[in-house]
Amino acid sequence: MKIVLASNNQGKLAELQAMFAPLGVQLLPQGTLMEGEAPEPYGTFLENALSKARFASERTGLPAIADDAGLCVAAFGGLPGVDTAYYCTQFGYEKSDDNNVRALLEQMAGLSDRRAAMVSTLVAVRHPKDPEPLVAVGRVAAEITTEPLGDGGFGFDPVLLIPALGMTFAQMATEVKHAHSHRGRSSRLMMALLQESWLAGTPLVAAAPKD
């Protein structure tokens, strides 16, 4: 079964393709099939993920999966949320992972409340008008460090400390990150939904990782 992944983010693509491998489906990045990106005018991860999934399915004629994810900082009332990817631009920086990290650390300088959460919402549709989209949400609590730690991952990984493990996502081996990350959690939930709803009777290629 071919499913288009409604994203052009290379880090996200690599993570999701690896985690969905046990399903035996062919997950195709939308950039290889179409041009353009869906509008994301909404204030919630769910609404934007649904918009992206519908857009990709309509343009490609294939079932689609979309992820909308972001950082929710307690001291900022849950922001930047859906605007996470462009967080640094509001402070005069060009859009990039490094600048996002720099801007976050600058804005949190002197704050004692370092609590945050990374949230991933995955939505899958069989076609653009699918009345029963599959929805899976993964959330992981973290603390914002005072400086980047580790060389792996992408996005805010170098400053997202998972207290139970004593490491940032950027310090973790790939399999450890997948087991504990927000996207790892939403992906495992989505895999179970796909197996139950779309792929009933089709055996998994390999066992999915567990928490």
From TrEMBL:
Q: Which cofactor does it need?
A: Mg(2+)
Q: What is its EC number?
A: 3.6.1.66
Q: What class of enzyme is it?
A: hydrolase
What GO CC annotations are associated with the protein? cytosol
Q: Which UniProt keywords apply?
A: Hydrolase, Magnesium, Metal-binding, Nucleotide metabolism, Nucleotide-binding
Name of protein: dITP/XTP pyrophosphatase
Q: Name one GO molecular function term.
A: ribonucleoside triphosphate phosphatase activity
Matching entries from HAMAP family are given as: Non_canon_purine_NTPase
Residues where Mg(2+) binds: E40, D68
Q: Which residues participate directly in catalysis? A: D68 (proton acceptor)
Q: How is the cofactor bound?
A: Binds 1 Mg(2+) ion per subunit.
- Which residues of the sequence carry a binding annotation for substrate? S7, N8, N9, Q10, G11, K12, A69, F154, G155, F156, D157, K177, H182, R183
SUPFAM superfamilies from the entry? ITPase-like
Entry's family note: Belongs to the HAM1 NTPase family.
Subunit structure, per the record?
Homodimer.
Catalytic activity annotation: XTP + H2O = XMP + diphosphate + H(+); dITP + H2O = dIMP + diphosphate + H(+); ITP + H2O = IMP + diphosphate + H(+)
Which organism was this protein described from?
Comamonas piscis
- Please provide the Gene Ontology terms (biological process) for this protein: nucleotide metabolic process; purine nucleoside triphosphate catabolic process
Role summary: Pyrophosphatase that catalyzes the hydrolysis of nucleoside triphosphates to their monophosphate derivatives, with a high preference for the non-canonical purine nucleotides XTP (xanthosine triphosphate), dITP (deoxyinosine triphosphate) and ITP. Seems to function as a house-cleaning enzyme that removes non-canonical purine nucleotides from the nucleotide pool, thus preventing their incorporation into DNA/RNA and avoiding chromosomal lesions.
InterPro entries membership? dITP/XTP_pyrophosphatase (IPR020922), ITPase-like_fam (IPR029001), RdgB/HAM1 (IPR002637)
